[in-house]
Each structure stands twice: as structure tokens, then as C-alpha cells.
């Protein structure tokens, strides 16, 4: 199914530091194939989580280049405060615009545990896609 490949690519790219709107893509694909909602949600969740793991890995590599003082100032301050306060639980917000990418990057930089980080990202992203899918399917049945 070509839609799944498109959904995976869009979700993956949207979760990296590149701009993208996987939600809009999901809405469009659901409008054309509402019966494929489950496969689209799973595909989007996995693609978006793998994209977030790319940011996590980049953050891990950035540890070699950035000092704690450099990363704790500027635009990373709110994300760093969230992760320092809540740890991997903050990654439930990895789906959120703007801050989500920063959280994934900082989680890698802070060397948060890999498996719990992946699980929190996957849970947060899946819940977001399920809510979007439910709203679209409800709207289509009106």
C-alpha cells in the first residue's frame, strides 16, 4: 500500500529537526482510505518515533561538541528544565510542536536510558495519532 510508505516517510521526516506536518498527511490519507486507519496510525507512530530517535542520536553525538553551559542557555532552556524535572517521562511530549524535537535532542545529549526513552516517545506519538484519527473518522461519519 503506497499510502503507508508515504505516511512512514512523512512521519519520519516530521520528527527530525526538519519541518514537516505528519498530522496533515495523516488527515489527507485517512480522508482517502478511512478503513486503513489502524495501519496508518501504526505506520505514522513507528516512523515518527524512529525520526525522534534520529534526533536522540544527534543529541548524543552533540555531547562531544557542546558543553553543558552552551546547551543550558537559549532556546533549549525550557526543554532542559522539563527533562531535568521529569526525566524520560518528559518524552511523552515528544510529539509537541517546537519543544518535541528539542526534548528528543536533549534526551540523547543527557544520555537518558534508550529503551524507556523509545517507549515514552512511542506512547506519546501514538496517542497523538490516535486522537487525530478518531477526530477525522468522526468527522467523516457526520
Automatic annotation (TrEMBL):
The keyword Membrane applies. Residues 22-135 form the VTT domain. This is VTT domain-containing protein. The keyword Glycoprotein does not apply. Keywords: Membrane, Transmembrane, Transmembrane helix. InterPro entries: DedA_domain, VTT_dom. The chain crosses the membrane at residues 6-30, 37-58, 86-110, 122-140. Pfam families: VTT_dom (PF09335).
Amino acid at each position: 500500500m503506497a499510502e503507508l510508505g508515504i505516511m512512514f516517510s512523512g512521519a519520519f521526516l516530521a520528527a527530525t529537526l526538519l519541518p514537516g506536518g505528519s498530522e496533515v498527511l495523516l488527515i489527507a490519507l485517512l480522508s482517502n482510505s478511512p478503513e486503513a486507519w489502524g495501519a496508518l496510525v501504526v505506520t505514522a507512530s513507528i516512523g515518527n518515533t524512529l525520526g525522534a530517535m534520529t534526533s536522540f542520536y544527534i543529541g548524543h553525538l552533540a555531547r562531544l561538541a557542546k558543553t553543558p553551559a552552551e546547551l543550558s542557555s537559549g532556546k533549549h532552556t525550557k526543554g532542559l528544565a522539563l527533562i531535568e524535572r521529569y526525566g524520560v517521562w518528559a518524552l511523552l511530549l515528544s510529539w509537541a510542536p517546537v519543544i518535541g524535537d528539542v526534548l528528543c535532542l536533549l534526551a540523547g545529549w543527557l544520555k537518558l536510558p534508550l529503551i524507556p526513552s523509545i517507549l515514552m516517545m512511542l506512547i506519546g506519538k501514538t496517542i497523538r495519532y490516535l486522537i487525530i484519527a478518531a477526530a477525522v473518522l468522526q468527522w467523516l461519519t457526520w
